[in-house]
Amino acid sequence: MSYSPFPGLRHERFLRGEALLRVGQLEAADLWFSSFAEHSPYGRLYIAPAHLRRAQIAERLGRPAQAAEHWKRVAALWKDADPEFKALIVRGSAEVVAR
To answer: Quick check: 89 and 81 in contact, CB under 8 A?
Structure first.
C-alpha cells in the first residue's frame, strides 16, 4: 500500500500488525505495517517503528534486500534518536549486512 485508506485508527492499525507478528502471521503483519505511508500526514509517529517491524519481518522471511531497505529508512528517520534506539539500528543493520 502506498497510501492508507484508513487515515484514522493509527494506533489500532499498528497494534493489529503487532498482534499478527506475535502469532507468526508475518505476511499479514507486514501489510498492516505497510499502511503507514511516508507522505501521509496521518500516523507520522508510526512510520519509523513500522519500518523497524518491516525490517524484522523481512529478516525472518529471508528477504535481506528488503530488510536492508527498511533498516535504511529506520536509520534515516531516527538519525537523531536517543542512544538506545541508535544501538538498535546499528545492531539490526549489522545483522542484515552480515547475512
So the answer is: yes
